[in-house]
Please model this.
Amino acid sequence: MARGETGPDFIEALARGLDVIRAFQPGRPVMSLTEVATAAGLARPTARRILLTLQELGYARPEPGGFALTPRVLELGVSYVRSMSLWEVARPHLEELVARTRESSSIAQLDGSDIVYVARVSVPKIVALSVQIGTRFPALQTSLGKVLLAALPPAEVERVLAEPSRSGIEPRWRPDAKEREAALRAVRAKGWAVTDQQLALGIRSVAAPLRDGLGNVIAAVNVNAHAAETSVEKLTEEHLPLLLKTAGAISADWAAYEAVPHVTTAG
Model:
């Protein structure tokens, strides 16, 4: 994978290993050695050594026709979520919100031009796109992403959205710069965002920011619904007040958590 200039402490071998893991995109659970090498921008012998190393560590396995990642890869993302402790802080509030709205609720953070889900409480409903911890979607077409993008300076928004999405999703809504800026201005003015089937047909959601003790936006939380069951009016008139209350409670608890010294003792 092409890179810009790197510092003297940059470990190329580690970067190549991560490139191989990222080569496995949605809809491609099994890839041949040649496909992995091409997607990661590596020579076949290099890709082969990395795949065999990942296999020995338990992060990949051989399959007919090539290689596949194992569920152990999820540990990498779960480690991040656990280190943030955001899930522990947010969980009771998300569970209460889901119980009252009877709709799924998630928390996401920005990663390049995508959002990545870091916490979720779901209800059993058939939706157009499956969501779990670690799922990524193009940010601009989601309510969560709009909230996170609106919190950035305009120049930073331009830089972030210039990065290609790694979600594998082709969104329905593709605004020009003027329409995009207007949408984000509206989010800044209101303090929350709604999306109506802009990512995929049948998906509606409303989102609000989560803030730390200094008022910085650290994540976003949403209520997600199926368009055939929940109107935009119901989202904004019934679910939004509950969502805003939940976002405020999570933010307050997170600020309190940050303010308390945390000491790790040897077990």
